[in-house]
Design brief:
45% of the residues lie in helices and 22% in strands. By secondary structure, it is α/β, with parallel strands linked by helices. Helix 2 (38-48) packs parallel to helix 3 (64-74). The protein has a single domain, classed as Response regulator (Rossmann fold). The chain has five helices and five strands; from the N terminus they run βαβαβαβαβα. The model has no long low-confidence stretch (mean pLDDT 93). Helix 4 (89-98) links the parallel strand 4 (79-84) and strand 5 (102-105).
Length: 123
Amino acid sequence: MNPIRVMVVDDHDAVRRGLSYSLALFDELQFVGAAGNGREAISLCSQINPDVVLMDIKMPEMDGVAATRYIRQAYPRVQVIALTSYQDPETFQAMLQAGAVGYLLKSASIEEIANTIFATCFS
């Protein structure tokens, strides 16, 4: 079985780097790219064809809600999981309405993140 291809979208470089290193701990996951905002994510998505996008919500240029809506329309097989530090029910609802399949806090462990990715791809 091929590994699950994961793209990370976050405006903080340390978060992108940390997740890329952490995802490498799992043979079943493959980090395939990172973007610093929603606009970059859309462009990169067409180039690298990820299975899952871990999407921050609050970002400059284009936020995660708008990027998720676009990605889910243009690439319906790509699953988007919101990854944020905000516990705001309205933001969570907006991400779900845009097409996100899940919602994780950035404080989640890498095991929780990996398990959510697995559940998303194997459900």
